[in-house]
Amino acid sequence: MSQKLNAALLGASGYTGADLMRLGVRHPNIDFTVLTANTHAGKPVEEVFPHLGGVDLPQLQRADDINWSELDVVFCGLPHATSQQIVSEIVKSTDRPKIVDMSADFRLRDPAQYKAWYGNDHVDPQLQDIAAYGLTEHNRDAIRSKRIIACPGCYPTATLIALLPLAKASLINVEALIIDAKSGVTGAGRGLKQNTLAAEAGESLSPYAVGAHRHTAELEQEIGAVSGKEIKVNFTPHLIPMSRGELITAHLELESGKSVNDLRAVLESNYQDEPFVRVLSEGKMPSTGMVRGSNTCVINVFEDRIPGRAIVIAALDNLVKGSAGQALQNFNVAFGIEETTGLSQIPMFP
Ligand SMILES: NC(=O)C1=CN([C@@H]2O[C@H](COP(=O)(O)OP(=O)(O)OC[C@H]3O[C@@H](n4cnc5c(N)ncnc54)[C@H](OP(=O)(O)O)[C@@H]3O)[C@@H](O)[C@H]2O)C=CC1
Ligand SMILES: CC(=O)N[C@@H](CCC(=O)OP(=O)(O)O)C(=O)O
C-alpha cells in the first residue's frame, strides 16, 4: 500500500499515546490528523512531550467535534470504561474507521466477566461480536476481519506469547499455572499515583493486586479457549523501579512424558518465522534490557530442578510490544500492510 490513511489517536497525551506517535509518525501509511487529550487538550504536542518537538503533528484537542466518518483508523489509548463509551459512539455514527483499542474494554468476551473484574457494566456489550483479541501472532484472521481490535494487556501479551503454543500442544498442565510478573512504572499510566512516585517506587520492589489482578481474566480466557478447559491461573504482578519493560516467569508442570526439549521445539517451530518473537538459544536469559524500545518479545525455556517441572521466561517493552507497538502491528495486519512497517527499531542499549 502506498497511500496515507487518515488516523486519529485518542489519549495522545498518555504514555501509550506518546509511543504510538513516536513510532507512527514515521509510518509511511499513517497521517495523524486528530490527536485527543483530556486535561492537556488545547496544547501543542511539543508542550506535553518535548521529545516530540519539531515533529509535524496536530494540536491536542477534545474528542467533541470529530467527524469519525472521515477517518480510516482510530487508535485508542484511553482508560478502560472511557474507551467503550467513545468506541460505541463511533460505531453507531459510521461504519468507516477501524478501531485499534489499547484499553481493556474489548478483551473479555463475556460481559459478566468484564463486570466481575472491572466493576462496571459494559455500555455496549454487543460490540464484543465485532471485536478481535489482538494478540497478533495468534489471531491474524480475526484481526483482519473484525472492526475493533482489542490489544491485549501488557502482561498477557508476554505470558500468552510464551504459553499459548505450549497449551495448544498439550505439553503443560494448564490447571497448574503460576505466573510471576514484573513491570516498570509506565505500565501504570501517566496519571499521578502515589505508588509510582520516584520516592516510593525507587529502591523498592512491590507486589500488587496479589491474587486479584485483572489480567488474570484474559489469561484464563485465552489459555482456557485453546485447551478447552475452564482454568484458574495464579498470577502475581510486581512493580519494579524502572521506566519501561516487563518480564514474566511462568512456573510450569509438564504433562506426563514431556520434557523441556519438547517445549523448546514447539516454541521454536511456532515462532521461527515471526519477526517480533525470538526464542533465545539454550541457557540465554531473557531480560527487559534486551528489548527496550523495540517491538520484540524474547522467550526462553529452562529445566527446573524439580522433576516434571519447567520454567519459561519472557520479556518485552510494555509500551511497544505490550501496547503501542502491538497496536501498530495489528493496524498493519488489519490494513494488509507489511507487518513490520514502522516497527523495525533495534532495541536500545544500554
Ligand atoms: N501503560 C502501559 O504500559 C499500558 C497501558 N495499556 C492501556 O492503554 C490505555 C492508555 O494507557 P496509558 O497511555 O498508560 O494511560 P495514561 O494515563 O498515560 O494516558 C491516558 C490518556 O487518556 C486521556 N484521558 C484520561 N481520562 C480521560 C477522559 N475521561 N476522557 C478523555 N480522555 C481521557 C489522558 O488525557 P490527559 O493526559 O489530557 O488527561 C491521556 O491522554 C489504558 O487503558 C491502559 O490500561 C495497555 C497496555 C500497556
Ligand atoms: C505497572 C502497572 O500498573 N501495570 C498495569 C498494566 C498495564 C496494562 O496492560 O493495562 P490495562 O490492562 O489496564 O490495559 C496494571 O497492572 O494495571
Automatic annotation (TrEMBL):
Enzyme class of the recorded protein, top EC level: oxidoreductase
Family: Belongs to the NAGSA dehydrogenase family. Type 1 subfamily.
Protein name stated in the entry: N-acetyl-gamma-glutamyl-phosphate reductase
Source domain of life: Bacteria
Entry annotated with the keyword Cytoplasm: yes
Functional description taken from the UniProt entry: Catalyzes the NADPH-dependent reduction of N-acetyl-5-glutamyl phosphate to yield N-acetyl-L-glutamate 5-semialdehyde.
Active site: 154
Keywords: Amino-acid biosynthesis, Arginine biosynthesis, Cytoplasm, NADP, Oxidoreductase
NCBIfam families on file: argC (TIGR01850)
Localization per record: Cytoplasm
Pathway: Amino-acid biosynthesis; L-arginine biosynthesis; N(2)-acetyl-L-ornithine from L-glutamate: step 3/4
Domain Semialdehyde dehydrogenase NAD-binding: 6-146
EC number(s) from the headed UniProt entry: 1.2.1.38
Reactions it catalyzes: N-acetyl-L-glutamate 5-semialdehyde + phosphate + NADP(+) = N-acetyl-L-glutamyl 5-phosphate + NADPH + H(+)
The keyword Amino-acid biosynthesis is assigned to this record: yes
